[in-house]
Design a protein that fits this description.
29% of the residues lie in helices and 14% in strands. The radius of gyration is 19 Å and the shape is globular. With 189 residues, the protein is an alpha+beta fold. It has two domains: 1-47, no CATH class; 56-188, Muramoyl-pentapeptide Carboxypeptidase, domain 2. The structure holds zinc ion. The site of zinc ion has 4 residues, from strand 5.
């Protein structure tokens, strides 16, 4: 009876697990491995997630943990090719984004002009923990590695005028969507 129970358990559990393979990163090396279809990632692994990283209005005030795993996996892969990726800015408070936007308004003269360069806090994904700025301001070549290879990890560049800004807006392995012209274009999307 006991062994029957165990068999029963092992058939129940996968119903809660993933039904498509996801990428799992080793929690130390961040090397990637496709998950077992039925079991998902193992205990010493971190999942890169099944789809685009979802918005959450109740998210903790920090960088989204799946976005962080995706970046670390990309960082490990880049390092093996001699590229040093680093997050210069990730989670920002709403107040910090407001400050950055106010500075941009002073510099560019209006809300409309400023929002071409800095996302207004109500549009920015940094206060939601869903955006990272990579290798800004002096290493566009390194960020370009992520622009080309990021899709493998579920990371995409988003704006034509911000080579440093990346989000987890696709499932790992999907194709990145076309770039928005700038942060202001979010108003129309
Ligand atoms: Zn950014």
């Amino acid at each position: 009876m006991a062994s029957y129970f165990l068999v029963f358990q092992s058939h129940i559990y996968p119903a809660n697990a993933v039904d498509i393979p996801v990428l799992c990163a080793d929690s130390q090396s961040f090397a990637l491995r496709p998950s077992n279809v039925m079991k998902g990632c193992q205990q010493n692994e971190l999942s890169l997630g099944e789809g685009p990283i979802a918005y959450s209005l109740t998210a903790e005030k920090k960088l989204n943990p799946i976005l962080e795993v995706r970046f670390k996996a990309a960082q490990a892969a880049a390092k093996s090719e001699g590229i040093n990726l680093k997050i210069v800015s990730g989670y920002r408070t709403f107040a910090r984004q407001q400050y950055l936007f106010d500075q941009a308004v002073k510099k560019h003269g209006s809300y409309q002009e400023a929002s071409k360069w800095v996302a207004p806090p109500e549009l920015s994904h940094h206060p939601l923990g869903l955006a990272i700025d990579v290798n800004y301001p002096n290493e566009p070549d390194s960020a370009y590695w992520l622009e080309i290879n990021g899709y493998k990890f579920g990371l995409c560049r988003v704006f034509k005028n911000e080579w440093w800004h990346f989000e987890g807006n696709i499932a790992p392995g999907w194709k990145c969507p076309p770039l928005f012209k700038n942060a202001r274009a979010l108003l129309k999307s």
